[in-house]
Amino acid sequence: MDLDAVFHDAPAGAKLLGVIGHPLGHTLSPAMHMAAIKRLGLNAVYAKIEVKPDEWDDFLRQAKALPLHGFNVTLPYKEAIAKEARCRDASAYLGSVNTVLNNDGAWEGWSTDGPGFVKDIARCGIDLRDNRIVLLGAGGAARALLFTISFAALNPRKVTLFDTSLPKTQALIDDLKAVWKNPGVPADHKKGVFDVESAGDQERLKEAVRGCDVLINATPAGLKPSDTPAIDFSWLHKNLTVYDLIYHRETELMRAARDIGARAFDGLGMLVSQGALSFEKWFRTVPPADVMLAAAKAGLQNKS
Ligand code: NAP
Q1: What does the alpha-carbon distance between residue 118 and residue 113 come to, in Å, rounded to a whole number?
Q2: CATH number listed for the domain at residues 114-266
Q3: Is the CB of 43 under 6 A from ligand 1?
């Protein structure tokens, strides 16, 4: 990994940005951000920066020396970068950052996944207030969503979590409750306290899905057509809204929900929204979301 080589043909004075992660084969971020940069006529370059685990320390050194103006962070570095940046939002409690801005030599960090979700559900007309939510998954994305639902005071009636790992699910709930109880966390960040539980077993998950208003899939189940679904589709009902974070295809879960007359949304809007929020941190301007969405869709088509 050589950042000088990555940006060797950048125009003079250009702001240098990128996405770091490993592996990065699938990322739509360079296409989305370059489309917005071009549309706004900004002097900036956003590149794909593959950082292998043994290159991490070298990346930190080069990124500061270059310097990078800002960057997105994806798997597996979202937690590691949180230790290097001053966390400015719910990322302080998540311990996970996906957006970094170099502010006169000091790195500032945000997690825009959760706010991107909040922005996109508003676009979809989904209001979580007083609703019963089932959140599938207890990994990085589910963690970001759960904390943001609290941080943004979306006030659901109840959130039921289910992940293949029960200890991981319980740990996520415990972490959220620890923030609520922490006297050091500003009251403003604890307005959104709600009933949160682990589904535990399949029987309780079935009851929770049958009784819920919004079902969110934050697991990788559905990335491939051959994946075993996270739930039994016979539990779905027509008054349900399904939001699947998977964004490159209509999953079997989405299709099953639509087939019985329920509403279903994919995660492409969330992907674009989290990217647009990162862009705002770097350029202090709102990017054209329609241009970013079109670039993301074109990127998906090129892959298929
Ligand atoms: P992650 O950290 O690997 O977490 C996924 C969690 O789901 C893991 O705890 C996993 O358990 C669990 N899981 C896997 N299959 C399951 C099943 N059938 N039932 C219940 N739990 C299951 O991944 P992530 O970063 O949170 O991402 C999750 C999904 O969201 C991915 O598909 C990702 O592409 C998508 N995503 C979308 C956006 C967007 O902007 N639209 C943003 C972030 C993520 P194990 O570890 O035991 O497998």
Answers
A1: 9
A2: 3.40.50.720
A3: no
User: Does ligand 1 have an atom closer than 6 angstroms to the CB of 182?
Assistant: no
Strands 132-136 and 86-87: unpaired
121 lines ligand 1 (CB under 6 A): no
Token pair for residue 101? Answer: 């801005």
225-250 in b/e burial notation, b at 16+ Cβ within 10 A?
Answer: eeeeebbeeebbbeebbbbbbbbbbe
- What is the model's pTM? 0.96
- pLDDT level of residue 26 (50, 70, 90 thresholds): confident
Note whether 3-111+271-303 and 114-266 share their fold: yes
Mean pLDDT of 169-187: 93
Active-site residues, by number, are 78
Band of pLDDT at residue 256, cut at 50, 70 and 90: very high
Contact status, residue 17 vs residue 70, Cβ threshold 8 Å: yes
Task: Look at residues 187, 215, 51 and name the one whose alpha carbon lies nearest to residue 126.
Answer: 215
The domain spans of the chain are 3-111+271-303, 114-266
- What topology is assigned to 3-111+271-303 in CATH? Rossmann fold (3.40.50)
For residue 227, the ligand 1 atom closest to its alpha carbon is: 18
Among protein residues, the one with the nearest Cα to ligand 1's atom 4 is 139
**CA–CA gap between residue 132 and residue 272 (Å, rounded):** 26
Q: What is the pLDDT at residue 25?
A: 81
For tokens 């964004």, the residue is 247
269 in contact with ligand 1, CB cutoff 6 A: no
Q: How many angstroms is it from 140 CA to the middle of ligand 1? A: 7
CB 274 less than 6 A from any atom of ligand 1? yes
Rounded to 10°, the helix 289-303/268-283 angle is 130
Q: Hey, whose CA ends up nearest to atom 19 of ligand 1?
A: 230
